[in-house]
Amino acid sequence: MISRFFIQRPIFAWVVALVIMLGGVLAILTLPISQYPVIAPPAVAITANYPGASADTLETSVTQVIEQQLHGLDHLLYFSSTSTANGQATITATFQPGTNPDIAQVQVQNKVQQATPLLPAVVQQQGLIVAKNQASPLLVISLYDPHGRYSDVDLGDIVNSRFIDPLSRINGVGDTQLFGGTYAMRIWLDPFKLNNYKLMASDVRAAVLAQNVQVPAGELGGPPDVAGQELDATVNAQSRLQTADQFRNIILRTQPDGSLVRLGDVARVEIGADNYAQSARYDGYPAAGLAIKLAPGANALDTATAVRAQTAELAKTLPAGVVVDFPVDNTSFVKLSIKDVITTLLVAILLVVGVMFLFLQNWRATLIPAIAVPVVLLGHLRGPGASPAIPSTP
Question: What is this structure's pTM?
Fold first, then answer.
């Protein structure tokens, strides 16, 4: 009955077929594309830093304290942790496949908040990072100076201050990771000089924290004021220290003879890197890198295109001689995969048409099923959120 209905109304059948094909074409343009299908269970990583602590101390005072609070999480499969000798602890909570990663991250964040008051004060000051554990990077952006005028620390600070925030706000970017260090004030204490002045490292730390502060000085002439008061001025006091000379002049103690012991008398103060654990190079030149990780369900090709466009705009503000490159680009594999899928479909259609003509020996009889093949293929495509009939990888 249905076939007779369409046979008697060929124009209506053509309209239905065209609508199906149009819907399939629109579905192709909106399907999420990624390098690999999402088959791994979602995971949330917790990162804590305890500078100067050994792996054993980090395990007992930080890692175990956080692990004891990770109970009652919905769909939790297991969690694993590592405590390294450089003072960094990482705990990864893995959930069942299909779990909403955003909900899992919120639940883990709530558990971490319960454990935070139990952690050492230094760990609380460093802060704990709770983030969805991302897969391999989609892109890696590299900044390098072939002329050698900028060090890897200089380039790392440029990436941190100019690239991370704009690129993180691009739709489809899930996370970023900096390869390199940024500027930091380094204070290298001399133990012999400290001993001569009867000082300890804790004394230096207390002096730096006390004298490197942002002080709200208030205002003059503010209400309630006396009658006839016309002046209302804000008082600006010295803010946080910014230069190495300012840090060298920090007063540590006053000697019995009235002389002052300053930080520069017992330490070497300089602007260096906040982390010397990494050193980036590109073709042998000092460099800094930024890994761009894809958000779950985002379109890899659209995200990579947007990141490249934004990077090209940001590159215009770089100092002369600094070059931007993309040493890692996983979208090339995605593009080749899509090209192979399209080629396979075209070859399959040609083979189907050829086989039908071979057996039917009639072009008119072959033309009707040949037209039906693309209609059927495009009709099986669905919109975002559904599994595509045509995979993005072979």
Answer: 0.70
